[in-house]
Write a structure and sequence with these properties.
single chain, 166 residues, alpha/beta, 2 domains, 3-stranded parallel beta sheet, two-stranded antiparallel ribbon, 22% strand, globular
Length: 166
């Protein structure tokens, strides 16, 4: 399905079209091939290890989800565990992805609460962080085409700059 890119404030930029999928078409919502489940639960051994260290009093994304529960809108506990959906969800009629969960985690942390979020990222990013890389946000860079050396429309994603000092 092709959709128009929605800018902050809800304005549509017709020049920036990108391929997006409805949440139900997202591979993380389709489930694994053996049983069709689409929840990705934390393995019990990992949960026990993290709970021993952080002593959780709240799970922002519990399973099974209680009726009427909304982890993005409710107040979180003093030590919250967050294993958010790996893809997008529909929340209050709008598509929400990992950015919404990270914003909520930051907001709760700023209230003096401990928040532990688990989320898949590429291994090379962890390698760069472990190596002491400083990370800068370069924004949505409009890379130049190799053929014409003219700027493109941007990727629609922010570009990270990793700096490894000697």
């Amino acid at each position: 399905m092709l959709s128009e890119t929605i800018l902050e404030g809800g304005f549509v930029n017709p020049e920036m079209k990108k391929r997006t999928r409805n949440p139900e078409e997202n591979k993380f919502h389709k489930g694994n091939k053996s049983d069709g489940n689409h929840y990705w639960l934390t393995p019990p051994e990992l949960m026990e290890e993290l709970n021993r260290e952080f002593k959780f009093d709240f799970d922002a994304c519990p399973h099974p989800l209680p009726d009427g529960f909304d982890g993005l809108s409710c107040e979180w506990g003093n030590s919250t565990y967050v294993n958010p959906p790996f893809g997008s969800i529909i929340h209050k009629g709008r598509k929400k992805g990992p950015t919404a969960w990270m914003r909520k985690a930051i907001k709760e942390s700023q209230k003096g609460k401990k928040v532990v979020v688990v989320y898949p990222i590429d291994k090379w990013i962890l390698m760069m962080i472990a190596a002491g890389a400083k990370i800068r946000n370069l924004g949505d860079v409009r890379w130049l085409s190799t053929e014409e050396e003219k700027p493109g429309q941007g990727t629609g994603r922010h570009i990270a700059c990793f700096i490894l000092d000697p």
